[in-house]
Specification:
This protein folds into two domains: 156 residues, Medium-chain alcohol dehydrogenases, catalytic domain (Quinone Oxidoreductase, Chain A, domain 1, Alpha-Beta Complex); 138 residues, NAD(P)-binding Rossmann-like Domain (Rossmann fold). 30% of the residues lie in helices and 27% in strands. The chain contains ten helices and 15 strands. It is α/β, with parallel strands linked by helices. The longest helix has 15 residues. Strands 3, 4, 5, 6, 7, 14 and 15 form a seven-stranded mixed sheet that branches.
Length: 321
């Protein structure tokens, strides 16, 4: 099969389409004929590498995988022993490692039937961004109906999901984004949209129950100042300076949360089939509609990763196969 293989690191130039072996079919796994796979920030960071990323990979004992991608949507090609939820021909979406390829192998408990009212490209966009928005807002921040939520960095992949999911949870949503993303964010149903190039939202008198920070371009102190007493700041974005700065921001959040007992939380989303089913219900009801900025064929996958890294992507970037 054809796959987008990483050969070295440093830039998207190390990504090349190669012929590699199709994944072996194992017990409890599903072989997916990939139709679409979305690009996430982790793909960009993995391609660019660096000492800190290598250290983190060793600490987390991450398996070395030359094919990037994890979000997937496509058809079930075959199922392994003990798989009961799917059969060949089913349309599925969810997570499968090495999804920038014609075929990917995913665990049965990390996939779900694709809703008929969304395209493969839209379904592929859900995975990481959907989990991050849902788990961060519902589970970490505890968003409830009637609360005021500010989404900082609302125009990207996670941000566009966050605005819609916060609305689905019943919140009043203020979305902060850049000038070229205002229109798409407004179309998501945000109650108020702030263009940060024209106004500093931290200087407004408004205060919020939850600040959901996807952008990671403002200090933790400045973000906390716009919280109501008892409010919570959730950090989901990686510091745009990269390297040591990423880990410094995480450490600061941990210290503030534990030592200073401030309501600052950092978390990393995880695969949960129940949450995938929850997201599927939102898709089917029309409360969640994945937005896609650009799609690239597999042959131009390197450009997809490169474009995501510019920070200019409006919503999601998807590779089609």
């Amino acid at each position: 099969m054809k796959a987008l293989v990483q050969e070295g690191d440093g830039s998207a130039d190390v990504l090349h389409v190669r012929e590699i072996s199709r994944p072996a079919l194992a017990a409890g796994r599903v072989l997916v004929k990939v139709r679409a796979a979305s690009v996430n920030a982790l793909d960009w960071h993995s391609v660019h590498g660096g000492t800190m990323l290598r250290i983190a990979s060793k600490v987390m004992r991450s398996k070395s995988e030359p094919v990037r991608g994890v979000d997937v949507a496509g058809y079930v090609e075959a199922v392994g022993e003990n798989v009961t939820l799917f059969k060949p021909g089913d349309e599925v979406f969810g997570s499968a490692p090495a999804s920038f390829a014609e075929y990917a192998s995913g665990r049965e408990d990390r996939l779900a039937q694709k809703p008929r009212n969304v395209s493969f490209e839209q379904a592929a966009a859900v995975g990481v961004a959907g989990y991050t928005a849902l788990q961060g807002l519902r589970d970490i921040a505890g968003v409830r109906s009637g609360q005021r939520v500010l989404v900082h960095g609302a125009g990207g992949g996670v941000g566009t999901f966050s605005v819609q999911i916060a609305k689905a949870l019943g919140a009043h949503v203020t979305a902060v984004t850049g000038e070229n993303k205002v229109d798409i964010v407004r179309s998501l149903g945000a109650d108020e949209v702030i263009d940060y190039t024209k106004e500093d939202f931290t200087q407004r008198p408004a205060r919020f129950d939850v600040v959901f920070d996807v952008a990671a371009t403002r200090s933790i102190g400045s973000l906390r100042r716009v919280l109501l007493p008892g409010g919570v700041l959730v950090l989901v974005g990686a510091d745009k300076r990269g390297g040591v700065a990423i880990f410094g921001r995480i450490l600061s959040a941990i210290v503030r949360s534990r030592a200073l007992r401030q309501r600052v939380r950092f978390f990393v989303a995880h695969n949960d089939q129940k949450d995938l089913f929850f997201l599927r219900d939102l898709l089917e009801s029309g409360q969640l509609t994945p937005r896609i900025d650009r799609t690239y064929p597999l042959s131009e996958g390197a450009e997809a990763v490169r474009y995501l890294g510019t920070g200019q992507a409006r919503a999601k970037v998807v590779i089609t196969i």
